[in-house]
């Protein structure tokens, strides 16, 4: 995002709308840090500028990633996935992606309010890749990997900053404790925050095989369920 310096009256009304704190007053001018701006378009969409001075210049690769990951109205051009991740975890009754004996993990980096650079996303992905997880192919971060076995991202994207990005993978249930432990360790090495989505099928008795692993790894667990009201049509057999 940029500001038309001729039009801008430095009224500062747009400043509180930036979730990254990228808009700032310098002398008698209001500016946008191009390094911190994640191209989320919130400042412009807020419609608070009285003189319409905020404008979106054409973005070039790899800066296009900032808007693809930060502006929910922009679809990722290569995956057609809007925003940061897939919706698979919420539609398992249809996709059958998470089978019995397996778990799914989504690591949501950058929320709330900090943003994330892809070099930190890569640290998380590589830490998990070492333990043999399978990255979700339809996820935009997976698309940016130059090697899905190592979790390494393309070097040119590493310094790009986004509002948030999700590393998504599935793994055998027995690997969950060591992956959670690795995530606790890598959390100390990154300059952002993350939250975890941990998904599995409920056992016939209603218990959830991932809960104890999450608790023993030191994570606070908040249970969320989804009730299938019969609208989903399973595309895969239960396995
Ligand atoms: S596009 Fe988003 S990050 Fe950039 S200045 Fe506007 S609100 Fe801030
Ligand atoms: S709201 Fe518009 S005029 Fe006011 S500081 Fe922001 S860009 Fe400038």
Word description of this protein:
This protein has 239 residues and is of the alpha+beta class. The protein folds into 2 domains: 1-57, 2-Layer Sandwich (Alpha-Beta Plaits), CATH 3.30.70.20; 72-216, Aldehyde Oxidoreductase, domain 3 (Alpha-Beta Complex). The chain is built from 7 helices and 12 strands. The protein has helices at 42-45, 64-70, 92-95, 118-129, 140-143, 176-186, 211-216, and strands at residues 2-3, 23-26, 29-32, 54-55, 102-109, 116-117, 134-135, 145-147, 152-153, 161-162, 165-172, 194-199. The strands form 5 sheets. Strands 7-11-5-12 form a 4-stranded antiparallel beta sheet. Strands 1-4 form a two-stranded antiparallel sheet. Helix 4 (118-129) runs antiparallel to helix 6 (176-186). The radius of gyration is 20 Å and the shape is elongated. It starts with a strand and ends in a 23-residue tail after the last helix. The model has no long low-confidence stretch (mean pLDDT 89).
Write the layout of secondary structure elements.
Layout: E1 2-3, E2 23-26, E3 29-32, H1 42-45, E4 54-55, H2 64-70, H3 92-95, E5 102-109, E6 116-117, H4 118-129, E7 134-135, H5 140-143, E8 145-147, E9 152-153, E10 161-162, E11 165-172, H6 176-186, E12 194-199, H7 211-216
Antiparallel strand pairs: 1-4, 2-3, 5-11, 5-12, 6-10, 7-11, 8-9
Helix pairs in contact: 4-6
């Amino acid at each position: 995002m940029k500001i038309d310096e001729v039009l801008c009256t430095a009224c500062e009304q747009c400043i509180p709308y930036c979730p990254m704190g990228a808009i700032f007053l310098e002398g008698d001018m209001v500016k946008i840090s191009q390094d911190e701006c994640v191209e989320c378009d919130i400042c412009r969409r807020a419609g608070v500028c009285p003189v319409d001075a905020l404008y979106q210049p054409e973005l070039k690769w790899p800066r296009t990633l900032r808007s693809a990951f930060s502006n929910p109205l922009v679809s990722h051009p290569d995956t057609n996935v809007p925003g940061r991740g897939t919706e698979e975890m919420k539609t398992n009754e249809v996709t059958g992606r998470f089978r019995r004996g397996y778990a799914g993990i989504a690591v949501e980096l950058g929320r709330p309010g900090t943003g994330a650079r892809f070099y930190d996303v890569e640290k998380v992905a590589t830490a998990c890749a070492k333990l043999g997880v399978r990255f979700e192919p339809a996820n935009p971060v997976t698309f940016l990997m130059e090697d899905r076995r190592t979790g390494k991202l393309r070097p040119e994207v590493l310094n790009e900053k986004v509002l948030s990005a999700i590393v998504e993978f599935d793994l055998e249930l027995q690997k969950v404790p060591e992956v959670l432990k690795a995530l606790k360790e890598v959390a100390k090495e990154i300059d952002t925050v993350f939250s975890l989505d941990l998904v599995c099928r409920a056992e016939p008795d209603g218990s959830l095989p991932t809960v104890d692993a999450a608790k023993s790894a030191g994570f606070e667990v908040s249970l969320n369920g989804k009730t299938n009201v019969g609208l989903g049509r399973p595309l895969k057999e239960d396995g």
